[in-house]
Every structure is written in structure tokens, then in C-alpha cells.
Design brief:
Order of helices and strands: HHHHHHH
Number of strands: 0
Helix content: over 70%
Largest sheet: none
Length: 189
């Protein structure tokens, strides 16, 4: 637990100047932010601890996604650049990989990490398209490749949500709402 907190603190301490909070990221998406009820009878203690850690990191991934999306949309005037995003999301992915998943959640864990990697690839393709365009070259293929990553990330996040609902049918509406809110706001679509 100490390693997780130290790593999370390191991510938070290196926040870009834009400094979007988790609540602001949810507001940018015009979405509520339901919290997990980790005391729910629908989880074992290990599952609750795991889900608490994972969804804290998902919230940080949401902030990074929103800051970089804002940067691209504002043509670099606001938010955090892809270069900032890339380094910070690589750290988040490493943190996610370091959280031991209870055996029956392993597939969900892998899908979540893959979805965030696909988002990283989406932003990387967007940056490549801009770089190619600035050189006066045809950047249509680079822009088109973004769509593939957008779709695969979204599909994986939908699968994570559906699997969480199926795996924890007794988790309660508060947790179903929290699963939905976190994964919906993380989704790029």
C-alpha cells in the first residue's frame, strides 16, 4: 500500500501547470462522479481494496485525458501537450500494472490497461498527424488511424463495465453508478 501511495503522490506532484482537478475533468465531460461504496457486501475485502486503488488511478487517467484533449482542441493554447501526457500516462500504466488483481478480476484488469494504452495510441496518432501536416505532407492516414484506437479503447471500456456488472451483481446501485461514471468519463467517445 505504501508503494502505491508513494507512486500516486509522485504523479500528483508532477501535475502540469494547467492543473485540472478530478472534479473539473468530470465537469468538462458534463458528467456526475459517483464514488464507490467499498463497504458493499458485493465485494470481498481484497476486491474492494483493488477496486479502490484502480479507480483512483482511473480518475488520474481521466484528468490526463481531458488535459490533453483540451490541448489538442485548443491548438496548444490550453491543457497539457501530448509529450506531457505520454510520460504521465506511461507512469499511470506502470502503476496500474503494479496493482495485483484478485484472480477473478485479472481479465478486467488487463482490458482496462489495454484501453488506456489505446487512448495513448489515439493521442500519439493525433500528434503524428499534426507533425506530418506541419511538414506539408499528407496526414490523412495518420488522422484515420486515430479512429481505430478510439473504437478499440471504447469497446474495451464497455467490456470492462459489462464484466464488472456481471462479476459483482450484488454490489448495489451506488457501485454500478460508480463503475459507469468512471469508465464513461474515461472513454474518448
Amino acid at each position: 500500500m505504501k508503494q502505491f501511495l508513494a507512486a500516486a503522490a509522485a504523479v500528483l506532484l508532477t501535475a502540469p501547470a494547467f492543473g485540472m482537478t478530478i472534479d473539473q475533468a468530470y465537469q468538462e465531460m458534463s458528467h456526475r462522479h459517483a464514488n464507490l461504496d467499498l463497504a458493499s457486501a458485493g465485494f470481498t475485502r481484497d476486491e474492494a481494496a483493488y477496486l479502490g486503488k484502480i479507480f483512483q488511478l482511473v480518475d488520474l487517467a481521466i484528468v490526463e485525458k481531458m488535459q490533453t484533449y483540451t490541448w489538442f482542441q485548443s491548438e496548444g493554447k490550453k491543457g497539457a501537450s501530448f509529450r506531457d501526457y505520454k510520460g504521465r500516462v506511461d507512469v499511470l500504466i506502470a502503476q496500474l500494472e503494479g496493482v495485483p488483481a484478485p484472480a477473478r478480476i485479472g481479465a478486467i484488469h488487463r482490458l482496462l490497461i489495454e484501453a488506456i494504452r489505446d487512448q495513448r495510441a489515439f493521442f500519439e496518432a493525433w500528434q503524428q498527424a499534426l507533425d506530418v501536416g506541419q511538414q506539408g505532407q499528407d496526414n490523412a492516414p495518420a488522422y484515420q488511424s486515430r479512429g481505430r484506437y478510439l473504437k478499440t479503447s471504447s469497446d474495451k471500456l464497455h467490456e470492462v463495465y459489462n464484466n464488472l456488472r456481471a462479476l459483482f451483481p450484488n454490489a448495489g446501485q451506488q457501485n454500478f453508478d460508480a463503475f459507469y461514471d468512471h469508465l464513461c468519463v474515461l472513454d474518448l467517445l
